[in-house]
Amino acid sequence: MLGYSPVYRKLIAVTLILLSVLIVSVVLGLAIGSSGSTADAWRVLLGQADDETLEVIIWQLRWPRIVLAATVGATLSLGGLVFQALLRNPLAEPYILGISGGSAVGAILGILAGFSLFPGLTLSSFVGSLMVLSLVLLLSNRREGHSDSLLLAGVMVNAFCGAIIMFLISVSKTVQMQKIIFWLMGDLSSVGADSLPLLLGVLPCFLVIFLLAQPLNLLLTGRESASAMGVNVAAVTLVLLLTASLMVSLTVCHSGLIGFVGLTIPHILRLALGSDHRILIPACVLTGASYLILCDLLARSLPSQGEMSVGIVTALVGAPLFIGLLWRSRQ
Length: 331
Hints:
The chain is mainly alpha-helical. It is built from 15 helices and no strands. The longest helix has about 35 residues, at about 50-85.
């Protein structure tokens, strides 16, 4: 139990601040868009205007998209935190390690097979992520202090998944091909209110990971030290890997590939808040949600011939940071 320790007080303060940022991000996402003026949207949100068309746009189009963006951002951010802690590599995250790519391969196979979103598409995506995770760990043959091979294995497997995806696109039908290509870029526009309950499946995953925050802290000291302090290292590692892979698969089915969120957010928060996962886990959930809502808002607002993919925005922000991290690790 945290009790009334300094950790507890810091957790409350960080949560309240980041929750306020999330609320502001949600309100901005609801109020700003290409349909209707921002002033009219504010009046609708405040109940001072009766515009049925704008109300439909806000609550049936923007609101589900914001919920999806928040869920995906929170999941990818938390997934990155878990993988970085378990594998003791600050560059580990679902996209770079190929977990998202494996989920995408499974999801595309499900799309081509005509599976429904649940359970067929979700299950195929989950199986794809687990297969890629197992392959990365097997290829890396990682030992304590030799984590570079893990990153290299992830990049190689991710490239292989990309080749499989291109092959599947080349043999698919025209309508399916267009849908898959747009989805692979990171698409949040196709969500509907009927698919939102499925996203609630990530909430138990968040809870499981938070309950294992202290064992995750002990794992940072090394597997032998954590085992000596009473942590069942094998069981905790297995539960966390399965939980992180499951929640990433649940969101990839809806959003496609969105990269660098799991790299950017945990790294920034670790620098700002320290390495205590009792604080980092809720901070990653709230910050990741706010971050992707704002990235999606930026993608919707930037001038372009069509709607820009949110995956492009996250890559433009995350890729330079990734390069900086690689340079720092070499130094």
